[in-house]
């Protein structure tokens, strides 16, 4: 159990079970130790209910993002990693631009990995908190469906929160 | 391959706003409230935040004159009440409350109250009859203190800014050797400018006066 995980190991190797995750966005495949992949509750449920074939297709998540997710899972599946190590490693994983973070948070939600969901959400919150709401709309791709009058009314309702913002 | 372009219809496709609410919960409370203006869908999502910071300083500008401040204080109270009324999450992760007026009225299940605050300016404790374990008041900027109820043990610290104290123990029916407790309380509010007391208090004071304290009491004391 303490031996280093070797992800490139062929699935036929008898001693260690691996799973192959395949991004359906760009068909990239990742061979991952089962205990690493099982940190995703979604994958665990598939495996537990025997729905997982040799290759588990992951819809809507690109290879780039899936690689980050797997890196996170590997770090957190390592029993000898200290709290501090994990914190540092997490900080490295979320040191990305806001659009990558949004893809990552969606992936964490889809794969149901609570820790990754939280650390990514925290980072997103940190990066939008001082922005004017026009920028936040842009980042989240939110279409403003208020009329100018409605928007002014909503703003007036909580004018204390908008002090100093145009 | 600018995956930026597909940005995020994904967000809007999510029928379950749980991710948005998680992100909102990591925002400072004020920024969470601001998300109400993003779109109709977002308008009430911030009510799901698990980080709540009710701070009077968000609403009240100390440089305004008192009539305006009183209006601002009211909107703070209205906002807080509405939030509590509509709040539906089972647990709150962080809760922070900061205000300048605290009024405890008929809180019967409190056994003790400990109030430590830099900002509190008015404290009212009215008919909270179960405070057997006493009241601790460590509020350096307290200006007005009103108490109505049975005699309980008071610990007061640093009440150097107090201007007005109203101490009413009229609820007590018989005199029970509370002189020391009341004396202690009076020492705690020694720099008060307007002191209102009840006849029960006078009785206790009388005992202490006899003890040679030389305390002079009017019901309105102006140095």
From TrEMBL, chain A:
Lineage start: Eukaryota, Viridiplantae, Streptophyta, Embryophyta, Tracheophyta
SUPFAM superfamilies: POZ domain, Skp1 dimerisation domain-like
PANTHER family registered for this protein in UniProt: SKP1
Alphabetized UniProt keyword annotations: Ubl conjugation pathway
Gene Ontology biological-process annotations: jasmonic acid mediated signaling pathway; protein ubiquitination; ubiquitin-dependent protein catabolic process
Domain SKP1 component POZ: 26-77
InterPro entries in the cross-refs: SKP1 (IPR016897), SKP1-like (IPR001232), SKP1-like_dim_sf (IPR036296), SKP1/BTB/POZ_sf (IPR011333), Skp1_comp_dimer (IPR016072), Skp1_comp_POZ (IPR016073)
Organism name: Actinidia rufa
Protein name listed in UniProt: SKP1-like protein
Quaternary structure annotation from Swiss-Prot or TrEMBL: Part of a SCF (SKP1-cullin-F-box) protein ligase complex.
Name of a matching Pfam family: Skp1
Gene3D superfamilies the UniProt entry points to: Potassium Channel Kv1.1, Chain A (3.30.710.10)
Coiled coil segments of this chain: none
Recorded metabolic or biological pathway in which this protein acts: Protein modification; protein ubiquitination
Superkingdom, natural source: Eukaryota
Domain SKP1 component dimerisation, first and last residues per copy: 114-161
Annotated function: Involved in ubiquitination and subsequent proteasomal degradation of target proteins. Together with CUL1, RBX1 and a F-box protein, it forms a SCF E3 ubiquitin ligase complex. The functional specificity of this complex depends on the type of F-box protein. In the SCF complex, it serves as an adapter that links the F-box protein to CUL1.
Family label: Belongs to the SKP1 family.
UniProtKB/TrEMBL annotation, chain B:
Protein's name in the database: F-box domain-containing protein
Any matching Pfam family: F-box
Keyword GTP-binding among record annotations: no
Sorted UniProt keywords: Membrane, Transmembrane, Transmembrane helix
Domain F-box: 19-46
InterPro entries (alphabetical): F-box-like_dom_sf (IPR036047), F-box_AtFBL13-like (IPR053781), F-box_dom (IPR001810), FBL13/AtMIF1-like (IPR050232)
Segments crossing the lipid bilayer: 14-33
Domain of life: Eukaryota
Source organism: Actinidia rufa
């Amino acid at each position: 159990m303490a031996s280093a995980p070797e992800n490139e190991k062929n699935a036929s190797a008898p001693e260690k079970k691996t799973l192959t995750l395949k991004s359906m966005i760009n068909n990239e495949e990742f061979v991952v130790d089962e205990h690493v992949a099982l940190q995703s509750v979604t994958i665990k449920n598939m495996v537990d209910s025997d729905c997982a074939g040799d290759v588990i297709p992951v819809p809507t998540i690109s290879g780039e993002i899936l690689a980050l997710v797997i890196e996170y899972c590997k770090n957190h599946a390592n029993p000898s990693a200290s709290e501090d190590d994990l914190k540092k490693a997490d900080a490295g994983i979320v040191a990305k631009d806001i659009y990558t973070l949004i893809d990552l948070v969606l992936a964490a939600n889809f794969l149901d990995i609570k820790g990754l969901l939280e650390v990514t959400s925290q980072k997103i919150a940190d990066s939008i908190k001082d922005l004017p709401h026009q920028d936040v709309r842009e980042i989240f791709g939110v279409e403003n469906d208020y009329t100018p009058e409605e928007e002014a009314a909503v703003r007036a309702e909580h004018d204390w929160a908008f002090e100093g913002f145009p | 391959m600018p995956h930026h372009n597909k940005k995020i219809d994904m967000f809007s496709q999510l029928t379950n706003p749980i991710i948005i609410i998680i992100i909102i919960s990591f925002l400072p409370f004020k920024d969470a409230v601001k998300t109400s203006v993003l779109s109709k869908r977002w308008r009430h999502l911030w009510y799901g935040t698990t980080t709540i910071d009710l701070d009077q300083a968000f609403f009240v500008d100390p440089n305004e004159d008192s009539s305006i401040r009183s209006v601002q204080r009211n909107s703070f109270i209205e906002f807080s009440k509405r939030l509590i009324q509509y709040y539906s999450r089972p647990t709150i992760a962080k809760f922070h409350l900061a205000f300048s007026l605290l009024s405890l009225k008929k809180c019967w299940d409190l056994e003790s109250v400990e109030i430590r605050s830099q900002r509190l300016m008015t404290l009212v404790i009215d008919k909270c009859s179960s405070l057997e374990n006493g009241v601790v008041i460590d509020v350096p900027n307290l200006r007005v203190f009103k108490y109505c109820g049975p005699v309980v043990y008071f610990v007061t610290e640093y009440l150097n800014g107090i201007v007005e104290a109203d101490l009413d123990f009229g609820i007590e029916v018989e005199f029970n050797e509370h002189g020391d407790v009341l004396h202690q309380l009076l020492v705690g509010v020694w720099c008060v400018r307007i002191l209102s007391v009840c006849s029960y208090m006078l009785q206790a004071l009388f005992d202490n006066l006899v003890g040679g304290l030389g305390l002079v009491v009017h019901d309105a004391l102006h140095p």
